[in-house]
Design goal:
Blueprint: E1 2-7, H1 19-27, E2 31-36, E3 49-50, E4 60-61, H2 63-75, E5 84-94, H3 97-104, E6 108-112, H4 121-127, E7 133-137, H5 146-158, E8 192-193, E9 196-197, H6 207-225, H7 227-232, H8 238-241
Parallel strand pairs: 1-2, 1-6, 5-6, 5-7
Antiparallel strand pairs: 3-4, 8-9
Helix pairs in contact: 2-4, 3-5
The site of S-adenosylmethionine (SAM) has 19 residues, from strand 5 and helix 5.
Length: 245
């Protein structure tokens, strides 16, 4: 998968060199290219923002540098290919595991990281005439810029790439999987720590009992912490919810 990220703070994307994402880059599974938006400015001050039409506080990112950046980056791909433009914004569609899975099936993602009050809307409107655009929110709060959101989306997406996880079994039974439940609580050695014991059933070696215990805990946790997920889950029925009662 190819990932391009455009930002006025390319240094913010340094974590893309670390951990599993860094390893995936080193192994060739990921081709990551970080670009400084100011490269596509032409004035002495490398200006990327201006005052908003209609008034109001803050500044808006100018369309010209973005237009040139997207033109040059998209032209650098194979003929007849275009990236999916991913624009982090608090007014975008919520990032979910489903959105991450959809993006992980794409060969090329191009992230446009906004700052200030955001990017002039015409950049996304024009890009839509040439490529698919996904405006994505990582949550109902406001960050200073799109860089951290681009890192979040990247991490959620690339861990779903075949060959990314050393042990792909780690991806099964996770929170927000097919059934839409949260994951059950997990434990490791020692069996007793600060007066707290690992639940007995986990030592039983009885796989069916362990699976039933884990499912009950997953349901219980989801009911307690995220009842909204139960409403969304297509695979849960009233019968299965009865398991937690
Ligand atoms: N004025 C914008 C609004 O109210 O929707 C917020 C702009 S925010 C200060 C600057 C940039 O941070 C946005 O353009 C976007 O790239 C990023 N950002 C902030 N919150 C975000 C979120 N929840 N999800 C994704 N990106 C976010």
């Amino acid at each position: 998968m190819r990932l391009d990220v455009v930002s006025i703070f390319p240094g913010y994307l340094a974590p893309l060199d670390l951990s599993l994402v860094g390893k995936a880059r080193a192994s060739g599974l990921l081709d990551v290219r970080v670009h400084d938006l100011r490269r596509w400015t032409h004035d002495r001050h490398h200006t990327v923002d201006d005052t908003p039409y209609g008034g109001g506080a803050g500044m808006v990112m100018k369309p010209e540098p973005w237009g040139e950046a997207l033109d040059e980056i998209t032209a650098s791909g194979e003929p007849d290919t275009a990236p999916v433009l991913v624009v982090p914004t608090p007014s975008g569609e919520p990032l979910t595991q489903r959105v991450a899975a959809e993006l992980s099936a794409e060969p090329w993602l191009l992230f446009a990281c906004g700052r200030y009050e955001g990017i002039d809307q015409r950049v996304m409107d024009h890009a839509r005439t040439r490529m698919r655009v996904r405006e994505v929110s990582i949550g109902d709060y406001v960050l200073n810029g799109g860089e951290v959101a681009a890192l979040v989306v990247t991490e959620a997406v690339v861990r779903l790439l075949p060959g990314f996880m050393g042990n792909p079994a780690s991806l099964t039974e996770e929170s927000h999987g097919d059934e839409g439940l949260l994951e059950y609580p997990v434990y490791t050695k020692p069996p007793s720590w600060r007066g707290l014991d690992v639940p007995e059933v986990l030592f039983s070696g009885n796989h069916a009992r362990i699976a039933a215990w884990r499912r009950a805990r997953a349901l219980e946790r989801t009911v307690e912490r995220r009842p909204d997920l139960l409403h969304r889950s297509r695979r849960l029925t009233l019968d299965t919810l009865g398991e937690v009662a």
